[in-house]
Design goal:
Elements (H helix, E strand, L loop, with lengths): L4 E4 L2 E4 L11 E6 L3 E3 L5 E7 L3 E6 L2 E2 L6 E3 L5 E4 L8 E9 L2 E4 L3 E6 L1
Parallel strand pairs: 4-12
Antiparallel strand pairs: 1-2, 3-5, 5-9, 6-7, 6-10, 8-9, 10-11, 10-12
């Protein structure tokens, strides 16, 4: 009986060696508040996912972390403390694994001052 194999970029691989990975999917991007007071409130944004890596975006650009911003150990939660008026805008997370990536729907933050 002939063994089955798959053709990869490194040549044929036996089927029992293949690891089939599910594409990264954002389940939910949640904000602790959508409206916050400048210099009084903190904000937690959590990207719930099964993906390998998480990247954050602010108004469509890679988020540049400031001193007031901290990421959790797996990068799935962003904490901003205290919130400032320049933090008002759209936040998104992008999750990925070795075979795919997906971006969340933006969460709009309104900062009152």
């Amino acid at each position: 009986m002939e063994s089955l194999s798959a053709l990869t970029s490194r040549g044929p691989v036996p089927w029992n060696w293949l690891l089939l990975a599910e594409p990264g999917r954002v389940t939910t991007l949640l904000a602790s508040n959508a409206t916050v007071m400048e210099l009084k409130d903190s904000l937690f944004l959590t990207c719930y996912t099964n993906a390998v890596s998480t990247q954050w975006f602010f108004n469509g650009m890679n988020l540049q972390l400031m001193e007031r911003m901290k990421l959790s150990s797996n990068d799935s939660t962003l904490k901003i403390d205290p919130v400032r008026r320049e933090d008002a805008g759209n936040f998104q997370c992008e999750v990925s694994n070795p075979i795919s990536s997906a971006q969340s729907v933006p969460v709009e933050l309104d900062v009152k001052y």
